[in-house]
Amino acid sequence: MEDELIVTSDGSHTVLSAQFGESYHSRFGAVQESRHIFIDAALKFKALQKTRLKVLEMGFGTGLNALLTLLESRRKGLEVDYSSVEAYPISPEQARSLNFIDILQEPWLGAPFSEMHTGPWGQAFSLDEHFVFTKWRSLFEEFAPPSQYDVIYFDAFAPAAQPELWELPLLGKMYDALLPGGVLTTYCAKGSVKRNLKSLGFTLESLEGPPGKREMTRATKG
User: Fold this and answer.
1) At 7, phi and psi to the nearest 5?
2) Nearest alpha carbon to residue 17 among 33, 2, 28, 30
3) Of 147, 219, 149, which is closest to residue 189 (Cα–Cα)?
4) If we measure between CA atoms, which residue out of 1, 206, 176, 5 comes closest to residue 99?
5) Structure pTM?
6) Domains in the chain and their CATH numbers?
7) E strands along the chain, which residues?
8) Cβ atoms of residues 38 and 68 within 8 Å
9) What is the pLDDT of residues 117-128, one digit of tens each?
């Protein structure tokens, strides 16, 4: 069984994982979802406080979150050190079939998007003069964050598909990986996940979700 390419409601692609039976993005709009949850609620939120940001993404997936972060960093004049973790990467061929560059109408993003998918693992490289990118091939449970971060994009598959990624051991690792005042955002608003985050010391906000989802979660480290 192979992964399936899907056109979402905003015209942008997502991939349905044959392994997990889950799509990487919302079928109501991949680009809309990524912008809403990660760019608007996390990156732009922290950029109000500082213009040099360290971002950790748990779940590189299609590369859409990283791509939109690069675009926003260029627009806002941010300096970004971006790290992304992925255990089961899509192939460069799959990445080439995604229509994100056309949807965003930003042709200059084509080269760095390709480099994200074809570049070396575990080695930092620059996608432009203000954006350093590192990707780590690792199970989330085995990943040891090498630094502390201003922002975490927690974009794992849903608790129904990978419940172990939403339990205290991994979420506690995320808490430790954030700088004081750092934020973690996720599409997940499940009660048990929010209770886990709160028990670790996070301050939680239930924010309006993207199309097709009533709520999302932003967690701030005190």
Assistant:
1) -90, 120
2) 2
3) 219
4) 5
5) 0.97
6) 29-221 (3.40.50.150)
7) 4-7, 13-16, 52-58, 79-86, 125-128, 131-137, 149-154, 178-186, 202-208, 215-221
8) yes
9) 999 999 999 999
